[in-house]
From TrEMBL, chain A:
GO terms for biological process: amino acid transport. InterPro entries: Bact_solute-bind_prot3 (IPR051455), Solute-binding_3/MltF_N (IPR001638). Transmembrane segments: none annotated. Keywords: Signal, Transport. The keyword Transmembrane helix does not apply. Belongs to the bacterial solute-binding protein 3 family. The keyword Transport applies. This is Amino acid ABC transporter substrate-binding protein. It holds the Pfam family SBP_bac_3. Residues 1-21 form the signal peptide. Residues 32-261 form the Solute-binding protein family 3/N-terminal domain.
Automatic annotation (TrEMBL), chain B:
It is a multi-pass membrane protein. NCBIfam families: HEQRo_perm_3TM. Its main location: membrane. The lineage of its organism: Bacteria, Pseudomonadati, Pseudomonadota, Gammaproteobacteria, Thiotrichales. Keywords: Amino-acid transport, Cell membrane, Membrane, Transmembrane, Transmembrane helix, Transport. PROSITE patterns: ABC_TM1. This is Amino acid ABC transporter permease. Belongs to the binding-protein-dependent transport system permease family. HisMQ subfamily.
């Protein structure tokens, strides 16, 4: 009896906190956006020499800060482990969770959270040594595969090989660092992990050029920012901050030319650069601030994980829809 | 009969009982089995040590501006050197780091007199260090008043955070543990059962669970927006956890004191607290120094667990900050070797200090 009262109380407290107050108001009052990032993942969120956070996930937070406060640097980062991330958001410790989090039905529907979009389409891929001369994973029947134990990658791999009637020998390791050491030592022919990770693992090899990431992607891992359910205004702001970055890329507005583009004659660009903020409860230059301070989606991608970074991840699925990718943003009008 | 009134001068020992050759013979080659083991050990050393030295020193790169500057034949210490500051201070702003240095320097300077036997008024100095100094240190490091810029705890990290957590953990867990140990041996039923419950509860859960509770569960029960500091939450968990262990170590010491000591103290008319603090505890604590230091070394190493709740202690910085720098991927080994070396330095120092302390307090009870 007493136990149930306690549980009821706990539940009441939990739901009481998750149905939150006006996040935008809190953000303006604090004068910073509280952003949950990963404790350290190359290209996505990592602290640089000066202790400033950098990465594609970090740029989402910076964009929201630019949109709401007019200054992309007004972000307070909270590094979170995978286990803590949702509680931190539910309890109001952070305003946005931008921490390479996969959008799934369970998370979206049962945690009291909303996914505000996808800032990186990830998926499980394969890496092989170029000595094998393999062009596709389908040629790898009977291969030994280095894999991190206890992850969904392990299950996806089993499904994929079974579906294609192929055999494989799993060589399991505890951490991703060990998998790459195993791969380097020749314990396996192939290494499998999420593609974004494959690229950063590849750099860890003594000779990165001798390993190739195969084109096959065998699972869907859309990663995106998450907000609390129940505050639609804030949900919209985060969603449209991301859309503004994608739209800016589509229209060719960059960090460098944002100022000139403000005087553009193109009505679509004009709408992007001002005039629509009121509907979101923001100032009119919200998207101008995003583009001029953070840059467009393509710039953020290239600088953090793409050609401008050591990771050299190709755009692939993350190219604009007009260029064969999946990044597509509704129009700003 | 031959009688001499002179004492014969001491003769050197016979050559077959002294000297390095004899030592070798006796200790390393005394039996076939020992010969075999010695040869095996020498072979192992030959197998392991030269490559390790080759890797860590001879082939190592100490300075390099970028990742390509490291040859990868040996260790790349430039990887550590370039971000050495972060492994020590975490994200603490560079311009303010003098405050951390001052605080730790103050602590060291204040502690030196405690090691000098003839220094008067040690009690007062000790009291100052334990009661007043923490506030000074907090204001220095955290700031936010007296014209110092506030540096919130989420910027703390590196070795500094490791030391802060372990020093606070040790100094607060010890008194709490002593009280709990006394409580457990008390004849008052409530005091006793509360102490037993407390100790058994905290000893029964792993530290990792305590930390998860403090960072994942606790925030859910607090009113929203009440931003209870993550570090403070972890600290409280660590102190409570550690005090249970200290309590059991101290209880061991209390039980080793003969009953006559308790009776003698009572017979002298001492109150409970006086008899404890003047007669029993000084003897009991002295007995359990190895056990206490053991616990403290364990705590020092356990502080690395805070990285699972997203606090960046020394290991956390090495693993998550240095290890996630896309410009310097692939040097984890160097990072871990560096962290291990720093931890070893501190733990070794602690164990040496405890041995010195035992010798100093040695009053003839040792067998």
């Amino acid at each position: 009896m007493r136990k149930s009262v306690f549980l009821g109380l706990a539940a009441a407290v939990m739901f009481g906190t998750s149905a939150s107050a006006d996040t935008l108001e809190t953000v303006i009052k604090n004068d910073h956006v509280k952003c949950g990032v990963s404790t350290g993942l190359a290209g996505f969120s990592a602290a640089d020499e000066k202790g400033d956070w950098q990465g594609i996930d970090v740029d989402v937070c910076r964009a929201v800060a630019a949109a709401t406060l007019g200054d992309a640097s007004k972000v307070k980062y909270t590094p979170l482990t995978a286990k803590e991330r949702f509680t931190a958001l539910q309890s109001g410790e952070i305003d946005i969770l931008s921490r390479n989090t996969t959008w799934t039905l369970t998370r979206d529907a049962s945690l009291g959270l909303n996914f505000a979009g996808v800032n990186y389409y990830d998926g499980q891929g394969f890496m092989v040594s170029d000595k094998l001369g393999v062009k596709s994973a389908l040629e790898l029947d009977g291969a030994a595969v280095c894999i991190q134990a206890g992850t969904t990658t392990e299950l996806n791999l089993a499904d994929y090989f079974k579906a294609n009637n192929m055999e494989y020998k799993a060589v399991t390791y505890d951490t991703s660092d060990q998998t790459i050491k195993g791969f380097e030592a020749g314990r396996c022919d192939m290494l499998t992990s999420d593609q974004s990770q494959l690229y950063s693992l590849r750099i860890k090899l003594a000779k990165p050029d001798e390993a190739v990431v195969l084109p096959e992607v065998i699972s869907k891992e859309p990663l995106g920012p998450v907000v609390r359910q129940g505050d639609d205004k804030w949900f919209n702001i985060v969603k449209w901050s991301l859309f503004a970055m994608v739209n800016a890329e589509e229209m060719g507005v960059t960090k460098a030319n944002a100022k000139e583009m403000k005087d553009s004659k193109d009505p679509a660009i004009q709408r992007l650069m001002g005039g629509q903020g009121e509907k979101l409860g923001l100032s009119d230059d919200w998207s101008y601030n995003i583009v001029s301070q953070v840059g467009n989606y393509g710039e953020s991608f290239e600088a953090n994980v793409g050609s401008g970074s050591p990771l050299k991840i190709g755009r692939g699925l993350n190219a604009l829809w007009s260029k064969g990718g999946l990044q597509y943003a509704p129009p700003i009008r | 009969m031959y009688v001499t009134d002179k004492i014969l001068p001491a003769q050197p020992a016979p050559s077959d009982t002294k000297g390095p050759v004899v030592w070798l013979k006796e200790n390393l080659f005394s039996s076939p089995l020992n010969i075999l083991m010695t040869l095996f050990a020498v072979y192992l050393i030959y197998l392991l040590v030269p490559p390790a030295i080759q890797w860590a020193f001879i082939d190592a790169d100490w300075f390099a501006a970028t990742r390509d500057g490291c040859s990868r034949e040996g260790a790349c210490w430039a990887y550590i050197a370039n971000r050495f500051g972060q492994t020590i201070y975490g994200f603490y702003p560079e311009a303010e780091q003098w405050r951390v240095n001052t605080a730790f320097l103050m602590l060291i300077v204040l502690c030196i007199p405690l090691f000098i036997n003839s220094f008067p008024k040690k009690m007062w100095l000790g009291g100052f260090i334990l009661i007043i100094f923490p506030f000074i240190a907090f204001f220095l490091i955290h700031g936010g008043s007296f014209g110092l810029v506030e540096v919130s705890t989420d910027k703390w990290g590196g070795l500094m955070l490791t030391l802060i957590i372990s020093i606070i953990g040790i100094t607060l867990a010890l008194p709490l543990g002593i009280i709990l140990a006394l409580g457990r041996r008390s004849h008052m039923p409530i005091v006793k059962s509360v102490s037993v419950l407390f100790i058994e509860f905290w000893r029964g859960v792993p530290l990792i669970t305590v930390l998860f509770m403090s960072s994942v569960m606790l925030p859910l029960f607090m009113p929203e927006g009440s931003d209870f500091d993550k570090l403070a939450r972890a600290m409280i968990g660590i102190i409570l956890f550690q005090s249970a262990y200290v309590a059991e170590v101290v209880r061991g010491g209390l039980q080793a004191i003969p009953k006559g000591q308790y009776e003698a103290a009572v017979a002298m008319g001492l109150t409970y607290w006086k008899s404890m603090f003047l007669v029993i505890l000084p003897q009991a604590l002295k007995l359990v120094i190895p056990g206490l230091v053991n616990t403290f070394i364990a705590l020092f190493k356990d502080t690395t667990l805070v990285l699972i709740i997203g606090l960046f202690d020394l290991l956390g910085v090495v693993q998550n900050v240095l290890g996630a720098d896309s410009k310097w991927l692939g040097f984890e080994t160097e990072g871990y070797v560096y962290a291990a070396f720093v931890f070893w330095l501190f733990c070794f120092g602690m164990s040496r200090y405890s041995m010195a302390l035992e010798r100093k307090l040695h009053t003839g009870h040792k067998r």
